[in-house]
Write a sequence for this structure.
C-alpha cells in the first residue's frame, strides 16, 4: 500500500482543471440548504487511501470482544501503525528532501542506540527484581549490612555505567552536530527564494524574482521544482508561528520583528502538507499549507500562470459575481490582480480556484466547499478573520461562479 | 515537696520529668488551638503540609478532568465536542494547573510535612511564613479556577508566549489571570524554599552531619536552591507581561524596541529548572522507598548526592533547547545540545544506584515499590526521548508536536507522579495512622501503569507523523485517527486507576489497618515517632549516629534533653556537623499570616484591574505584616533557672 | 519507638536561647530572601543588556538619566554604610542606648533616600511607556525602590519596638538582620547605578 498521491497534472491557466484531482471533494453544486449540508461538507477526508486500520478503530470501542481477538486487533493495529509511520503526507519519517532525510537518518540512529540502552535497563531491572529470591542465605531484617566485596563490585559497575553513559551521549552529540552542520551546508546553494509571512491563521506566500514585475503572491500553497533547493524567508505579521513541512525539513519559527530562513528541497514529485507548529491562537489547528513538488517545466508553467492577472469573467453569471465581489465587503480584505480589489489583509485570490485547498488547508478546494466557506466561515473555522459577508443566495451563486473561474 | 510537686516546676524535658508528663506538657505547648479560629491560625507544619497535599490533589483531579475532556475531543477527527475557544482554555488550564498548582506545590507539601520529621526537629523554620505561603497558594489557585469557570480562563498555553499573550492579541483579562496566578504561586514557592533551606541547614538533629542527611532531604534542599534561583525569572517575566498589558510598557513589543524572544529566554530560564524542581523531590521519594523495600541501605549515597547537585547546576544550562526552532545561532544551539545531553549522566548514575540497591537487596513488592519500578520503566523511556529532543536536527522535527507531549508526560508522570503515588502509599500510615489497602494498591498501580502507556506511547508516533500539539481538532486521513482513539482509551484506563486510588484513600481513612510507628521497618527519623506524629513531632530530640538511624540503633535512638516544654522551643545545630548551638523559640499560632495573605490577594487581584491597587493594596499588606511580626506585649516567661 | 526509658545522651539546657549571625535561623532566612532578590535584579539587568543588544542606538531617542540625583543617591547610600555598620556592632553588643541612636539615624537616612529616589524618577528623561528602554529603566529603578521602601519600613518598626517595652535579646538579632539587609540594598544599588547612569553614556 502506498500513500503517495497522484502526481499533479500540469496545470495552466487556460485548462482550468484542478491540478489535484484527488481534491475534487464534494460536487460543485451549491447546496440549497447550506445549514443542513454543511456538516457533510466540512473537511472531507484527506485523499489518502483508506487505511486497513479503520475497521480496527471502530472495533477498539467495542467491549464484547474476546481476548484473543483483541490481541489480533492489537497486532493489526501495530502493523498499520508501522505502515502509517512509513508513509504520510505530513510525516517526518517519510522524508522526500535531503534535510528531512538527514534528520530521519539521525533519528533512526538515535532510536537504535537508545532502544538498546533501554533494553539493557529493563533487563537489569528484571534481573534485580527476580534475582534476590534465590539468595536465601542472607540474614532477614533491615539490620542487614551491605557486604564489602559486593559494594566494591557495584561501585566498579557504577563507574563503568557513568563512563558508558558519557561515551554514548558524547557520540550522539557528535553525530547530531555533524548532521546539523551538514544540513546547514545544504542551505548554501538555494536557487529560488520564497517569502512566507504567517498571519492568524493563514500563510501569505510571495515568489520573489530579481525582475520586480515577475514577483507574485499566493496563499497557503507552495509549489517547488523537484530537486531545486528553495530558500524560504520567514516572517510573521501578528504572533509567533512555526513553518513546518515534515516531509521536507524540520520547523523554523516565524517571529514578529525578526526574519528567519530555512532551505527546503523536494527530491520527489508529490503533494505534501505543512502545518503551523507554534500555538498561535484560536485557529492554530487549521493553519495548514500545501506543498506541491513538480517537475521543473511544470513548475515554470505554473509560475507563468500565476504571474498572469486574473482571468476576466466569461459569462454573465461570473460578471455579475465580479460586480458583487467588487462592491461588497470582499474587497476590504482581498486582492484580485487585474481588478480594483487590492487589499492585502486576507489572501490574494487572483488564482484561488487553482489552489488545492481553501481556508489554509481547512477544506479541499471545491465549489461546494467554497460556497460553505463564504456563506458561514465562522462555522467552519470559528474565530477566523473572515467575516460573514451577508450575501443573498443569488449573490452567493454569482460570486461563486466568478471565483471558481479564477484558475 | 513531693517528687510530683517538684516536677510541676520543671520546664524542660529530661530524666526528672516522666515520659507521660513530658508528653502532656509538650502537647499543651504545641497543640493547635481547637475550633475554626485555631484552624485558621495554625502554624503546625503537619497541618499546613496536609492542607497543601489535599489542595494540590484537588487541582490534580481538576486538571485530570480537563485532560479527559481533551482526549474526548481528540478521540476522532473533526470532533466538535469542544469549541476552539473552550479547548484553548482547557489545555492552558490543564498545563498551568498541573505545573503551577499541582506538581510543584505537592512536592513542596511533602517537604513541609516530612522534612522537619526527617531531620528530627519540632517545627519547620518560619512556621508563620509557611502558613502564609499556603493561603497565598490557595488564593492564586482559586482565583485562576474561578476565572476559568467564569469563561475568563487563560487561553494562551502554559508558557504564554508573547505577542499572543500580549495586549494586542489577548485583549480582556484572561492572560492577566494567568500572570497573576504565577505571581501568587511563586511567592508561595519561594517562601517554602527558604523555610526548607533553613530547616535543613540549621534544625537537624544532633549528629546528622551532611553525609547522614536522608536523600529525600538532600533532594528537597537542592530543589529549594533551584527554586531560589529559577522562580525569580518567571516572576520578572510575568510582571513584565502584566505591565505590558496594563500600563503600556514595551518589553515584548518589537515595534518599540522590545523583543518577543526575551520572554522565551526568561520563561525557560525558569521553565527548564522547573522540571527538575518537580523531579528531584521525586527522586527523593524513590531513594526513601527503595532501601525500605529492598531492605538494604541505598547503594551509592555519595554518588546520589553528587548527582542531585550536578543536576541542580546543569538544570540551569539548558533552557535554550526549548528555543531551537526560533532561529538562534547554530553554534550556541550546539552548546545547549551538549548540556542537555550531559544531564543524562547524573540521571544515569541515579538509575544505576537504584537498580543496584534493588539487585543487592531482598525486595518486598509492596505497592510503594511497584510504583518505583513503574517509575524506572517509564522515566527511563522519557529520559531517552529527552536525549532525542536535545539534538538540534531531531528537535526541529518533533518540537511542538505530540512527540514532545509524550516525552514530558513520560518524564513528569513517570518521573514525578509515579514516585508521588508510591510516596503516598508509603507515608500514608505516617500521615493518618492507617495503612492503605495493598490489594487496591496493586490495582491502582496496574491500571495506572497500563493506562499511562496506552495513553501516551502512541503520542510519540503521532508527533513523528506530523501531529502538532495544541490543536483542538485534526482532519481525517492523515493517519492520526486510530492512534488518537487508542490514546483516549488509555486515558480512560488511567482515570480508572485514579478512581481506585481515591476509593482506597476514602475507605482506608476509616477502615484501614491501624499502623504502628514504623509499619514498613524503615530507617529514617520520621518513623521514630508516633503515626500520626504528635504536634511537637518528637518527645525528645533524637541523636543521629549514622545514615540509617533506625536500623543502626535498633534498641531505640539516643536522645538529648534540656529543651523547654512550657514554650515552643527548637534546637539549632551547626550547618556541617549538626552540633547543638542554640535553643531558639518557635512562633505561636497566629491569624496574621492569613490576614496578610488576604491583603496580598486583594493587591494582586486588584492590580489586574487597576495599577493603583499596588499602591492602595500595600497599606493593608503593611498592616498585616506589622501585625504578624509585632511581638507579644508581655515578654516571654523568663528562662527557668536550671533545677 | 522508644518503648522503654529514653537513652539520654546529653543535656542541652546550657545552650543560649538567642544568637546573632549564622547561628540564628533569621540570618539564614534573610540571606535566602537576599539571594532571591539578587537573582531578580540580575535577571532584570540581563534583560536590560539583552534589549540593548537588540537596538541600534541606546538609549533610543532619549538622553540618559541626569547625573545629579542618582549619583547623590549613590553617595548617600555608600555613606550610610558606616552608621549601618556601627548599628550592627552595637546590636551585637546588646547596647540598647546606642542601638536606639543607630536606628534613629538609619531611619532618617532611609527616609532621605526615599526622597532622593522620588527626584530620581523625575530625572530619568523617559517614561515607562515610551519604548522598551524606558520600560526597562523604570522597572529597574522601581524594583530597587520597592526594596528601599520595605527596608525603611522595617527600620521604622524596629525603631518603635526599641523605644517601647518590647526590648528583649531577640530584638537585637532583628536589628543585626536588618543591617545585613541594608547592606544588600546598598550593594544592589552600585551596579544598578552604573547600569542606569553610566552604561547609556558608554554605548
Amino acid at each position: 500500500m502506498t500513500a503517495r498521491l497522484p502526481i499533479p497534472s500540469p496545470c495552466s491557466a487556460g485548462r482550468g482543471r484542478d491540478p489535484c484531482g484527488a481534491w475534487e471533494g464534494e460536487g460543485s453544486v451549491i447546496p440549497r440548504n447550506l445549514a443542513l449540508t454543511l456538516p457533510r461538507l466540512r473537511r472531507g477526508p484527506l485523499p489518502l487511501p483508506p487505511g486497513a486500520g479503520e475497521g480496527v478503530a471502530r472495533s477498539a470501542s467495542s467491549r464484547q470482544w474476546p481476548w484473543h481477538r483483541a490481541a489480533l486487533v492489537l497486532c493489526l493495529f501495530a502493523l498499520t501503525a508501522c505502515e502509517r509511520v512509513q508513509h504520510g503526507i505530513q510525516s517526518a519519517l517519510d522524508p522526500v528532501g535531503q534535510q528531512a532525510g538527514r534528520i530521519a537518518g539521525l533519528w533512526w540512529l538515535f532510536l537504535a542506540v537508545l532502544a538498546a540502552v533501554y533494553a539493557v535497563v529493563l533487563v537489569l531491572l528484571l534481573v534485580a527484581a527476580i534475582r534476590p529470591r534465590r539468595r536465601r542465605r542472607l540474614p532477614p531484617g533491615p539490620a542487614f549490612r551491605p557486604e564489602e566485596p559486593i559494594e566494591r563490585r557495584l561501585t566498579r559497575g557504577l563507574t563503568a555505567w557513568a563512563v558508558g553513559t558519557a561515551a554514548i551521549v558524547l557520540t550522539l552529540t557528535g553525530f547530531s552536530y555533524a548532521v546539523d552542520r551538514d544540513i546547514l551546508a545544504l542551505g548554501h546553494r538555494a536557487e529560488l527564494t520564497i517569502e512566507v509571512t504567517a498571519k492568524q491563521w493563514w500563510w501569505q506566500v510571495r515568489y520573489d524574482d530579481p525582475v520586480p514585475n515577475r514577483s507574485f503572491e499566493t496563499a497557503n500553497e507552495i509549489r517547488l521544482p523537484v530537486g531545486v533547493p528553495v530558500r524560504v524567508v520567514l516572517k510573521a505579521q501578528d504572533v509567533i508561528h512555526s513553518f513546518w513541512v515534515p516531509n521536507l525539513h524540520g520547523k523554523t519559527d516565524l517571529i514578529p520583528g525578526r526574519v528567519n530562513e530555512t532551505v527546503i528541497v523536494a527530491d520527489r514529485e508529490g503533494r505534501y502538507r505543512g502545518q503551523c507548529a507554534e500555538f498561535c491562537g484560536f485557529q492554530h489547528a487549521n493553519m495548514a499549507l500545501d506543498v506541491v513538488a513538480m517537475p521543473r517545466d511544470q513548475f515554470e508553467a505554473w509560475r507563468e500562470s500565476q504571474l498572469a492577472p486574473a482571468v476576466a469573467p466569461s459569462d454573465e453569471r461570473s460578471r455579475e459575481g465580479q460586480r458583487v465581489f467588487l462592491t461588497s465587503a470582499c474587497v476590504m480584505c482581498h486582492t484580485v490582480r487585474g481588478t480594483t480589489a487590492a487589499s492585502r489583509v486576507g489572501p490574494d485570490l487572483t488564482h484561488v480556484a487553482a489552489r488545492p485547498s481553501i481556508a489554509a488547508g481547512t477544506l479541499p478546494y471545491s465549489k461546494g466547499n467554497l460556497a460553505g466557506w463564504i456563506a458561514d466561515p465562522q462555522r467552519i473555522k470559528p474565530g477566523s478573520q473572515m467575516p460573514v459577508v451577508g450575501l443573498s443566495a443569488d449573490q452567493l451563486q454569482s460570486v461563486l461562479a466568478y471565483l471558481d473561474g479564477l484558475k | 515537696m513531693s517528687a510530683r510537686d517538684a516536677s510541676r516546676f520543671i520546664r524542660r524535658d529530661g530524666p526528672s520529668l516522666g515520659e507521660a508528663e513530658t508528653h502532656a506538657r509538650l502537647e499543651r505547648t504545641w497543640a493547635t488551638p481547637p475550633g475554626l479560629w485555631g484552624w485558621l491560625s495554625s502554624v503546625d507544619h503537619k497541618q499546613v503540609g496536609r492542607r497543601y497535599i489535599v489542595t494540590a490533589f484537588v487541582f490534580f483531579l481538576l486538571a485530570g478532568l480537563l485532560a479527559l475532556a481533551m482526549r474526548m475531543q481528540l478521540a476522532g477527527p473533526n470532533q466538535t465536542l469542544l469549541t476552539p475557544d473552550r479547548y484553548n482554555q482547557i489545555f492552558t488550564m490543564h498545563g498551568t494547573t498541573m505545573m503551577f498548582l499541582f506538581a510543584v506545590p505537592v512536592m513542596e507539601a511533602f517537604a513541609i510535612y516530612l522534612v522537619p520529621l526527617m531531620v528530627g526537629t519540632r517545627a519547620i523554620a518560619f512556621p508563620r511564613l509557611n502558613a502564609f505561603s499556603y493561603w497565598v497558594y490557595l488564593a492564586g489557585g482559586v482565583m485562576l479556577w474561578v476565572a476559568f469557570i467564569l469563561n475568563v480562563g487563560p487561553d494562551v498555553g502554559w508558557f504564554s508566549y508573547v505577542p499572543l499573550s500580549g495586549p494586542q492579541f489577548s485583549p480582556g483579562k484572561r492572560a492577566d489571570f494567568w500572570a497573576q496566578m504565577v505571581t501568587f504561586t511563586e511567592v508561595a514557592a519561594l517562601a517554602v524554599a527558604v523555610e526548607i533551606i533553613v530547616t535543613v541547614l540549621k534544625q537537624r538533629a544532633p549528629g546528622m552531619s551532611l553525609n547522614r542527611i536522608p536523600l529525600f532531604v538532600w533532594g528537597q534542599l537542592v530543589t529549594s536552591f533551584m527554586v531560589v534561583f529559577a522562580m525569580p525569572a518567571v516572576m520578572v517575566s510575568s510582571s513584565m507581561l502584566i505591565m505590558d498589558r496594563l500600563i503600556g510598557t514595551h518589553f515584548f513589543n518589537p515595534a518599540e524596541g522590545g523583543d518577543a524572544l526575551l520572554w522565551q529566554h526568561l520563561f525557560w530560564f525558569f521553565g527548564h529548572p522547573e522540571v527538575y524542581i518537580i523531579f528531584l523531590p521525586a527522586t527523593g521519594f524513590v531513594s526513601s522507598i527503595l532501601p525500605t523495600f529492598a531492605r538494604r541501605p541505598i547503594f551509592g549515597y555519595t554518588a546520589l548526592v553528587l548527582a542531585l547537585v550536578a543536576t541542580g547546576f546543569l538544570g540551569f544550562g539548558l533552557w535554550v533547547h526549548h528555543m531551537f526552532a526560533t532561529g538562534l545561532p547554530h553554534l550556541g544551539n550546539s552548546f545547549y545540545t551538549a548540556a542537555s545531553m550531559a544531564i543524562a549522566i547524573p540521571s544515569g548514575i541515579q538509575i544505576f544506584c537504584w537498580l543496584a540497591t534493588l539487585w543487592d537487596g531482598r525486595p518486598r513488592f509492596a505497592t510503594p515499590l511497584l510504583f518505583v519500578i513503574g517509575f524506572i520503566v517509564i522515566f527511563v523511556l522519557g529520559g531517552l526521548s529527552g536525549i532525542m529532543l536535545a539534538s538540534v536536527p531531531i528537535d526541529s522535527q518533533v518540537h511542538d508536536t505530540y512527540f514532545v507531549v509524550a516525552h514530558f508526560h513520560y518524564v513528569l508522570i513517570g518521573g514525578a507522579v509515579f514516585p508521588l503515588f508510591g510516596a503516598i502509599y508509603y507515608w500514608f500510615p505516617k500521615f493518618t495512622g492507617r495503612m492503605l489497602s495493598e490489594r487496591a494498591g496493586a490495582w491502582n498501580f496496574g491500571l495506572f501503569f497500563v493506562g499511562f502507556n496506552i495513553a501516551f506511547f502512541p503520542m510519540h508516533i503521532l508527533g513523528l507523523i506530523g501531529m502538532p500539539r495544541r490543536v483542538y481538532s485534526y482532519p481525517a486521513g492523515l493517519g492520526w485517527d486510530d492512534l488518537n482513539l487508542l490514546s483516549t482509551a488509555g486515558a480512560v484506563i488511567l482515570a480508572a486507576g485514579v478512581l481506585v486510588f481515591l476509593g482506597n484513600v476514602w475507605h482506608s481513612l476509616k477502615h484501614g489497618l491501624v499502623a504502628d510507628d514504623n509499619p514498613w521497618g524503615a530507617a529514617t527519623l520520621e518513623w521514630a515517632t508516633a503515626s500520626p506524629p504528635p504536634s511537637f513531632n518528637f518527645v525528645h530530640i533524637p541523636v543521629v549516629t549514622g545514615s540509617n538511624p533506625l536500623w543502626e540503633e535498633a534498641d531505640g535512638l539516643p536522645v538529648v534533653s534540656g529543651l523547654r516544654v512550657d514554650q515552643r522551643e527548637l534546637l539549632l545545630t551547626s550547618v556541617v556537623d549538626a552540633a547543638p548551638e542554640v535553643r531558639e523559640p518557635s512562633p505561636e499560632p497566629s491569624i496574621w499570616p492569613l490576614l496578610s495573605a488576604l491583603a496580598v490577594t486583594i493587591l494582586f487581584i486588584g492590580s489586574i484591574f487597576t495599577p493603583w491597587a499596588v499602591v492602595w493594596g500595600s497599606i493593608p499588606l503593611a498592616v498585616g505584616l506589622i501585625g504578624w511580626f509585632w511581638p507579644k506585649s508581655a515578654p516571654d516567661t523568663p528562662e527557668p533557672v536550671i533545677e | 519507638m522508644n518503648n522503654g526509658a529514653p537513652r539520654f545522651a546529653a543535656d542541652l539546657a546550657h545552650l543560649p536561647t538567642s544568637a546573632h549571625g549564622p547561628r540564628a535561623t533569621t540570618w539564614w532566612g534573610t540571606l535566602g530572601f537576599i539571594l532571591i532578590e539578587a537573582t531578580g535584579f540580575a535577571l532584570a539587568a540581563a534583560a536590560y543588556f539583552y534589549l540593548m543588544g537588540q537596538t541600534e542606538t541606546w538609549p533610543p531617542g532619549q538622553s540618559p538619566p541626569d547625573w545629579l540625583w542618582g549619583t547623590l543617591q549613590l553617595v548617600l547610600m555608600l555613606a550610610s554604610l558606616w552608621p549601618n555598620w556601627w548599628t550592627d556592632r552595637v546590636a551585637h553588643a546588646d547596647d540598647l542606648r546606642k542601638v536606639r541612636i543607630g536606628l534613629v539615624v538609619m531611619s532618617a537616612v532611609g527616609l532621605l533616600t526615599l526622597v532622593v529616589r522620588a527626584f530620581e524618577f523625575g530625572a530619568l528623561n523617559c517614561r515607562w511607556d515610551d519604548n522598551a528602554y524606558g520600560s526597562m529603566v523604570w522597572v529597574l529603578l522601581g524594583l530597587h525602590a520597592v526594596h528601599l521602601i520595605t527596608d525603611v519600613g522595617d527600620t521604622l518598626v524596629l525603631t518603635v519596638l526599641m523605644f517601647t517595652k518590647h526590648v528583649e535579646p531577640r530584638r537585637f538579632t532583628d536589628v543585626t538582620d536588618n543591617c545585613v539587609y541594608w547592606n544588600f540594598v546598598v550593594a544592589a544599588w552600585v551596579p544598578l547605578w552604573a547600569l542606569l547612569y553610566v552604561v547609556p553614556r558608554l554605548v
Q: What stands out?
A: The radius of gyration of chain C is 22 Å. Chain C has a mean pLDDT of 93. The longest strand of chain C covers residues 7-11. The helical segments of chain C are 25-54, 67-92, 96-122, 132-162, 169-202.
